[in-house]
Amino acid sequence: MKLAELQRSFQAHVLYQDPAIGTQIVVDERCALSLRLGVYTGAYATRLVEVLAESFPAVHEALGARLFERSIRSFVRERPSRVRSARDYGAELPAWLATHLAGPRAAGIADLARFEWAVAGAFDAADQATLGPAGLAAFDAEQWARLQFAFSPTLRRLSVTSNAVAWWKCACAQQPRPSRWRTNCAQQWLVWRRELAVYYRRLSQAETRALDAALAGTAFGQLCVQLHEARAAAGLLHGWLTEGLIVGASIGP
To answer: CA torsion, points 115, 116, 118, 119, in degrees to nearest 10?
Structure first.
């Protein structure tokens, strides 16, 4: 068997418990084959549990070490890694938790995982120079209605239906836990990085609609119509520029 085939066979055993690799292992009467191979399959799962505990520390805190490990081992069995970097493993965990955890806090734990993944993604995203308020001075007044904006690659937008962000803040600061998971209504959150610091804040309904429209390519003039007032749109735009959310502007069709 060629080396590449042997590697694929060994990987199939580690990821999917395919027994074919057993025929390629030299017999050793001192140690059973299952035990010898189990060293690698066990280490693989254990390492991924450790990786995801580092990626989702607040989820680990909320679930407790025992339930977290049990849940993550199930996730590893169902979602073997298909990425080269361990840092990228875990993107599917929030959705998996939403469907596999039971009880009233299931949705909250899934929201918490989504928020943690957004924070980590914002921190790891590529750097790009931001456009400050002075950067729009190059455009004439008659061009403003057609201005479209490019946003920072660090920006993350998410909606949560629980008190997950409060749980995250408490887990980070080692403060007492909130008394409940549920909230009365969905919350819209914005996460982004500026230089080496990750920021987050809750969005109002008006800003949520305007930001989502701008992210989709809506021109500034249409944002003014949507908000029913040019001053309101200008205020939001100034805030986005000041916070470093915008990296470029261009004149649309």
So the answer is: 120
- DSSP 8-state class, residue 26: P
Decide if pLDDT at 90 tops 60: yes
Report how far residue 251's alpha carbon sits from residue 253's, in angstroms, rounded to the nearest whole number.
7
Per residue in 39-74, pLDDT tens? 556 677 788 899 999 999 999 999 999 999 999 999
Say if domain 102-253 classifies as CATH 3.30.1360: no
Give the pLDDT score at 22: 56
* Amino acid at position 147, single letter: L
Sequence-separated (6 or more) residues with CB below 8 Å from residue 5: none
In terms of pTM, does the model score above 0.85? no
Cα–Cα distance between 76 and 46 in angstroms, integer?
10
Residues of the chain with CATH 3.90.930: 102-253
DSSP 121-180: HHHHSPP-----GGGGGGS-GGGGGGEEEEE-TT-EEEEEEESHHHHHHHHHHTPPPPS-
Helices marked H in the chain — which ranges? 3-16, 33-55, 57-63, 65-78, 93-100, 106-124, 164-173, 205-215, 220-227, 230-242
Confirm if 152 and 244 have CB atoms less than 8 A apart: yes
What residue type is 169 in one-letter code? K
Residue position matching structure tokens 């239906």: 161
